[in-house]
Amino acid sequence: MLATGLLEVSAAEPSKATEASQGAGQGAPGAGGNPAPEPVRPPGFACGDKALSGTGPGFDSSREHSEQTAKEAWLEKAKAIYADATWEAAKDINMTCVKQGLYSKCFATAIPCGAQKSSAAAEPPAKGSN
What we know:
By secondary structure, the chain is of the alpha+beta class.
């Protein structure tokens, strides 16, 4: 019998335990509930209009390796849109992992962002002459 479980990890949201431990004992005004400031973006920085997804070739015995291969697959697709795309600069980051026994398969999903449109994304699609 195989058991399948779904684990979700979102890099965009810090854990509630971390927030609670950081907020404990701090009486600073505005410390509770205020979102972190947006990172400084370079001129011309933009984000795509839809999320891309990437995953590794199959189930892996190492969850960390499965997450890494999912990010690499996502980055390959993201660089086709923005040449300077990175996982860290992406918007709406989500890492979902499925566990089957001792093996994991992860799916990286995010909206790519960057300042340099790739040459493939900048060119209009070629029209076929049928």
